[in-house]
Amino acid sequence: MSEHVPIEPTILYFGTPVVLLSTENDDGSANLAPISSAWALGYTIVLGLGADGQSAYNLARRPDIVINVPGPHLWKQIESLAGVTGRFPVPESKPAGMRYEPDKFAVSGFTSQESVVVNPPRVAECGLQFEARVAPARLGVTGDFLIVQAQVLKVHADAAVVIAGTNYVEPAAWSPLIYNFRHYFGLGPELGHTYRSQTPR
Ligand SMILES: Cc1cc2nc3c(=O)[nH]c(=O)nc-3n(C[C@H](O)[C@H](O)[C@H](O)COP(=O)(O)O)c2cc1C
């Protein structure tokens, strides 16, 4: 076994999938924000969201959301949204250099696609799209981020990642975009599957 050393990294992003949140602004336009703090429990998706951002502002007023899940090939478009906020004026708590951008679709080049059960649009390029509604959120222990629970109402999947004629995603066809210590990765080759996998094979 290798030796472990104590370190104090500035961030602890050990590799989680990136999702792209669509929420509705006061004027009915859409805000887009990439986040990597997202995980699923059944049809509930838990999100970690900065309390000072436009996404948090929108969700406190209008609970509809689309959780769009991009593949690795979309990393540059995701990164084009890293330095912008839909919040005006830009909160002082945001990282230095962050600028206000009201049209996130234009700046990223993503394509807006009408949703079926919620108001904010889906992002057409994302292989998985979850239309959802959030419950009132709680602040996390440090007070600067919100723990948001989103109840998924409708799932859309690119036909190319679905096992035809089933409700199953083909794990060999689907790959999330992984945020790994502030660097972007895709998945490596499959290692195996859990005993609970029901994927037809
Ligand atoms: C790959 C990536 C992952 C991110 N993860 C998170 C996250 O988990 N939670 C969060 O609040 N912000 C995260 N951010 C930062 C937000 O995208 C950023 O604060 C943005 O300004 C939010 O936009 P908004 O203020 O319009 O909602 C991430 C950014 C990138 C590029």
Q: Describe it for me?
A:
9% of the residues lie in helices and 34% in strands. With 201 residues, it is mainly beta. The chain has one domain: Electron Transport, Fmn-binding Protein, Chain A (Pnp Oxidase, Chain A), CATH 2.30.110.10. The strands form four sheets. Strands 2, 3, 4, 5, 6, 11, 12 and 13 form an eight-stranded antiparallel sheet that branches. The radius of gyration is 17 Å and the shape is globular. Bound molecules: flavin mononucleotide. The site of flavin mononucleotide has 19 residues, from strand 3, strand 5 and helix 1.
- Would you identify the regions where 5 or more consecutive residues have pLDDT less than 50? none
**Content of β-strand:** 25-35%
Q: Briefly note the CATH topology name.
A: Pnp Oxidase, Chain A
- The overall pLDDT average reads 97
Number of discrete domains = 1
In terms of quaternary structure, the protein is single chain
Helix content: under 10%
Report how far the terminal alpha carbons are from each other.
Answer: 37 Å
- The CATH superfamily label reads Electron Transport, Fmn-binding Protein, Chain A
What Rg is obtained from the alpha carbons, in whole angstroms?
17 Å
